């Protein structure tokens, strides 16, 4: 079942030689060897044009063709070209000569997640595991929405960038929409300890549901420090899987245990899906703004695929209760601009604000991506506009900024516009709000 891979990266880089560095096709200066496999070598390289670091996978074309690995390489390229997400390793370009194929990819200097866990004693505290798991689930939700199933998820294929953000890599066994037969996948593939039980039955399976199983195994490894099912005898291992024969270490919390029970469900029809997992309470667990700030300083989080780049710690300090200094320069701003944080999804926030605006006589007249990628909307009524911007502070915490302006674009004067009350707006938003962040607001 386990297939030979085009390249498996090794953890320790080979020492850099002092020889003159080769310039590849006039575009990239090759540096040290990062890893090697049966059919490929991966080098650190730098762009000649701007000096940016990249990783280049070099494949021997005759060997790839002669061993039947061409399809795997083509699948990897096809999958990565259609995916653009902050937690998926980016494929910059593909180059080729008569004898070589070069895949120029984003460089992830943090190594793989398995090595990261090993450096931290073999398991992670729950808050750290949750952060990596949030990023993994967000990226998979994005992949599945585009018809791509990874099918070989494991910590070794989850790389880390220089800021500690997770990057899914190695799409050589990915399934694309055009590979479906009657809506199902047929090929048994992957790594046995992480592969869903339905994959080996050869009766057809859903790639997205198989990925959800692999996520459960990965989360178990991060929290428990061991595999839930691990046996050299595959028949015995899958017998244990169907009996749910595994044990949690005592330090795994009850909420995490309940989530793992739903992920490690041998029945794919009742197993929790990635889409439902996106809204799961354990994944969206709320923290105080101070806790979010601490986690950002220690471990910078990443964004979801549909959200603005994450704010840095200084931005959060400026927006925190009692620390916004903007009032010293714009006295009217505090009167006509309100901010709140929420742990709901960006779609739910915008939907609630639109409903609330409708009750107060506003009509949504635009929805767009503003500068920096923030999601914005304008709610207008005669004489005034309520502009709204939503950005991610630290997953899953969103910051919502609302500003009441007159139709000329300037802030309305006075505490309340005619017929408009911030208190009415707050009351309507209700449980959508995690905390208000304006001086004097509770």
UniProtKB/TrEMBL annotation:
It is an enzyme of class 2 (transferase). ATP binds at residue 57. Keywords: ATP-binding, Kinase, Manganese, Nucleotide-binding, Serine/threonine-protein kinase, Transferase. InterPro entries: Kinase-like_dom_sf (IPR011009), NAF/FISL_domain (IPR018451), NAF_dom (IPR004041), Prot_kinase_dom (IPR000719), Protein_kinase_ATP_BS (IPR017441), Ser/Thr_kinase_AS (IPR008271). SMART domains: S_TKc. It catalyses: L-seryl-[protein] + ATP = O-phospho-L-seryl-[protein] + ADP + H(+); L-threonyl-[protein] + ATP = O-phospho-L-threonyl-[protein] + ADP + H(+). This is non-specific serine/threonine protein kinase. It comes from Musa balbisiana. The lineage of its organism: Eukaryota, Viridiplantae, Streptophyta, Embryophyta, Tracheophyta.
């Amino acid at each position: 079942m386990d297939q030979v891979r085009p390249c498996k990266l090794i953890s320790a880089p080979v020492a850099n030689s002092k020889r003159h560095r080769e310039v590849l096709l006039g575009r990239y200066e090759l540096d040290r060897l990062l890893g090697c496999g049966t059919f490929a070598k991966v080098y650190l390289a730098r762009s000649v044009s701007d000096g940016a670091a990249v990783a280049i996978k070099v494949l021997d074309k005759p060997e790839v063709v002669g061993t039947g690995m061409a399809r795997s390489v083509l699948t990897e390229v096809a999958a990565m070209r259609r995916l653009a997400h902050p937690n998926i390793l980016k494929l910059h370009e593909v180059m080729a000569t008569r004898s070589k194929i070069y895949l120029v990819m984003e460089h992830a200097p943090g190594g793989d997640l398995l090595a990261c866990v090993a450096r931290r004693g073999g398991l992670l505290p729950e808050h750290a595991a949750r952060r990596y798991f949030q990023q993994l689930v967000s990226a998979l939700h994005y992949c599945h929405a585009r018809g791509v199933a990874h099918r070989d998820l494991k910590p070794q294929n989850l790389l880390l960038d220089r800021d500690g953000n997770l990057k899914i890599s190695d799409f050589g066994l990915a399934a694309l929409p055009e590979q479906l037969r009657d809506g199902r996948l047929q090929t048994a593939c992957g790594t046995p300890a992480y592969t869903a039980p339905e994959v080996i039955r050869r009766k057809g399976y859903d790639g997205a549901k198989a990925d959800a199983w692999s996520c459960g195994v990965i989360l178990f490894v991060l929290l428990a420090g061991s595999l839930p099912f691990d046996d050299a005898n595959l028949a015995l291992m899958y017998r244990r899987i169907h009996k749910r024969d595994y044990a949690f270490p005592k330090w795994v919390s009850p909420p995490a245990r309940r989530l793992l029970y739903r992920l490690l469900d041998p029945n794919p029809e009742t197993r929790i899906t990635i889409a439902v997992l996106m809204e799961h309470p354990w994944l969206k667990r709320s923290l105080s703004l101070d806790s979010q700030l601490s986690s950002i300083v220690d471990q910078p989080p990443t964004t979801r695929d549909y959200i603005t780049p994450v704010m840095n710690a200084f931005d959060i300090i400026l927006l925190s209760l009692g620390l916004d200094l903007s009032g010293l320069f714009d006295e009217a701003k505090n009167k006509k601009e309100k901010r709140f944080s929420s742990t709901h999804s960006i779609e739910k926030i915008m939907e609630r604000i639109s409903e609330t605006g409708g009750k107060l006589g506003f009509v949504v007249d635009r929805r767009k991506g503003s500068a920096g990628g923030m999601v914005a909307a304008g709610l207008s009524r005669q004489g005034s506009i309520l502009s709204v911007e939503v950005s991610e502070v630290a997953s899953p915490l969103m910051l919502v900024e609302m500003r009441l302006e007159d139709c000329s674009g300037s802030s309305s004067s006075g505490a309340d516009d005619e017929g408009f009350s911030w208190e009415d707006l707050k009351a309507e938003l209700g449980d959508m709000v995690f905390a208000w962040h304006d001086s004097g607001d509770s």
